[in-house]
Amino acid sequence: MLRGKKILLGVTGSIAAYKIASLVRALIKAGAEVKVVMTPSALSFVTPLTFSTLSKNPVYSAYIEDEETGEWTNHVDLGKWGDLMIIAPVSANTLAKMTTGECDNLLMAVYLSADCPIMVAPAMDLDMSDHWTTEKNIQTLKDNGVVVCEFGEGELASGLSGKGRMAEPEAIFETIKAHFEPASSLKSKTVIVTAGPTYEPIDPVRFIGNHSSGKMGFALAEELATRGAQVKLVTGPSSLSVSDSGVERFDITTAEEMFKAVEEQFGNADALIMSAAVADYTPKTVFEQKVKKEDVDLTSIELQKTKDILSHFGHQKEGRRVIGFALETENEIENAKKKLQKKNLDMVVLNSLNDKGAGFKTDTNKVTLIFPDRELTLELKAKTEVAKDIVNELEALI
Ligand code: CTP
């Protein structure tokens, strides 16, 4: 979750500044980009070279970088660069200035220009941390949305022992990580998603298939994983890939294989979303060898119905949520409602082929969500956005 995130790290004058090197290292290792801004007094505790080496970025500490050329640090650009600004350690002095807006160094100018969320990890001695002004300043920052990594307790640089130590870099790292983690509303939930087409073999080289790309199912899988769900993605042949590690992928080819894969996962699942375009029919017999024109007069193929996976599990749901898709060309809502009832579903996502931009290979979709007691028609939007709407509804159902 930290990959690619831009972290502005402010360092102020405190002995805890040396510990922050390990935070920079951890952030870089997790794939974040880090730019460090130091106050003049922080320079007495740790050198900019330490942070520039670890962050692989220049370290900023003064408005004027080069007196001769007049090169200056644009605090506004820096402030706008970050996805998050954290000041750690933040001294009692900077803490106070953050509540009044006093702007007497580059770090304060960057802080005042930043329009991203702000975090602080205060560090000071026992009596300073206990002082009513410190308590008031911390409260003011909290009231204004600043996230505070609370003081630790223990031995202090002064020789005293008690409250005032900066939170450990590992704890600060976890707070930053948690900040970028999306609401894990579906944590501890397991959801099966089916996607793509199924291919029903005629002989070793020919099959009956359809145009489904799997885009809708893959978008659903990614969205569910983003919200913390354990996703079992059962997919027919598709060129798509999933990047989220919360998605476990099962590649199948035929409707029968999809049925078995869903059956294996269903016992431990909280929900099933059947977005796959499952073949309704499959050849009754499959030729073992490629059919030759001279040998077989293949002008007709005898088909048999595949198992209706959605209906089968809809009738065995026992507290699970089961969602189906429907593609209708006439009496759309009425037919979708019938499907909902007949297959014992919690929701049907109705696609209409009559809508421009909806359908198999497009990146957009226009759907109506049908529930037993209501309908929700959504406008044409990206399949990734439709996935969010569907998962919102599933979340409410769960
Ligand atoms: N489905 C399934 N197993 C099948 C066929 C379809 O689980 N053998 C699921 C699809 O994944 C989708 C829904 O059923 O969620 C779509 O059904 P659809 O094919 O539109 O309707 P059918 O019930 O097959 O009826 P009809 O084709 O007559 O509309």
Question: What does it look like?
Answer:
This protein has 398 residues and is an alpha/beta fold. It folds into 2 domains: 6-180, Rossmann fold; 190-397, Rossmann fold (3-Layer(aba) Sandwich), CATH 3.40.50.10300. Helices cover 32% and strands 25% of the residues. The chain has 13 helices and 24 strands. It has helices spanning 20-29, 48-55, 75-81, 92-100, 106-113, 126-130, 132-143, 169-180, 215-226, 255-266, 309-314, 332-342, 383-397, and strands at 6-11, 33-38, 59-60, 64-66, 71-72, 84-90, 118-122, 147-148, 152-155, 161-165, 190-195, 200-201, 207-208, 230-235, 247-251, 271-274, 281-283, 303-305, 321-328, 347-352, 364-365, 367-370, 375-377, 381-382. The chain has an 8-stranded mixed sheet, with helices on both faces. Strands 3-2-1-6-7-8 form a 6-stranded parallel sheet, sandwiched between helices. A two-stranded antiparallel sheet has the order 4-5. A hairpin with a 5-residue loop joins strand 9 and strand 10. The structure holds cytidine-5'-triphosphate (CTP). Cytidine-5'-triphosphate binds at residues 255, 274, 276, 278, 280, 306, 308-310, 324-327, 339.
